[in-house]
Design a protein that fits this description.
Layout: H1 6-39, H2 44-48, H3 54-79, H4 85-111, H5 117-133, H6 139-143, H7 151-170, H8 172-175, H9 177-180, E1 181-182, E2 185-186, H10 192-220
Antiparallel strand pairs: 1-2
Helix pairs in contact: 1-3, 1-4, 1-5, 1-7, 3-4, 4-5, 7-10
């Protein structure tokens, strides 16, 4: 199988990482919005302004969670170079981005604040722009997402994506705190243990994949094979 150039392989890994982060943000956004979607009146005066649009936010929660699951599956297929994976990823980014944009509009209009959904929207738009740019003639041939990748390339992309997504999930109570502290309590901690478990699993799996890939490549370097002893 023809091997990708270093430039094409690097672009592929960057794109997969961006898509995986968008999927992680979408999953976190859908789960986090559920509190406001079903009980906005219980989260302070600012969130209470969203009570009139609770039915819309409830739909957005369902759409976001479904998009996130589809996005995660699509990202795995993209890392493996499966046919149709680019189309699946683009569908996820468009649907997830649209849901985030609707939520952004209502939050800005009614609350005057869009955080932390703005991070999700920006990450999704960035991933979508990068994926579309990589479909341009010249770049598409260099990256060629839907051409099978070597095990090392797949493991590197998947490992990096899992590690960064895990760190993002683990640190959610920290970066979400500025918009989730009500009466001195960080409401992001309502999902503390699910976030910790999911974050540790993703980050550990990513670190293991990256370590195994590094050791495999090191063992394959010339001069590292065991030489038979002579007399």
């Amino acid at each position: 199988m023809e091997k990708r150039s270093g430039f094409g392989a690097a672009l592929r890994i960057i794109a997969i990482i961006l898509v995986s982060l968008a999927a992680a943000f979408t999953l976190l956004g859908g789960a986090g919005t559920s509190c406001v979607a079903f009980a906005a009146e219980n989260f302070g005066p600012s969130m209470a302004k969203l009570v009139p649009v609770k039915p819309i936010f409830q739909v957005l929660v369902v759409v976001s969670l479904a998009a996130a699951i589809y996005g995660i599956m699509s990202t795995v297929r993209l890392a493996k170079g499966k046919p149709g994976s680019v189309r699946s990823v683009l569908i996820f980014l468009v649907v997830g981005g649209a849901a985030s944009a609707v939520q952004y509009y209502y939050s800005l209009t009614l609350r005057g604040s869009t955080a932390p959904n703005n991070f999700r929207l920006y990450a999704t738009i960035l991933a979508l722009v990068v994926m579309l740019l990589l479909q341009l003639p010249g770049l598409r041939e260099k990256v060629n997402f839907e051409r099978g990748s070597s095990g090392g390339g797949t493991a590197t992309a998947g490992g990096a994506a899992l590690l960064l997504s895990g760190l993002l999930i683990l640190t959610t109570p920290v970066w979400a705190a500025p918009t989730h502290v009500i009466d001195g309590y960080n409401t992001a901690n309502a999902l503390f243990w699910p976030l910790i478990i999911a974050g540790v699993v993703c980050a550990s799996a990513g670190a293991i994949l990256l370590t195994r890939t590094r050791l495999t490549r090191k063992a394959a370097l010339p001069g590292t094979e065991m030489q038979p002893s002579g007399r």
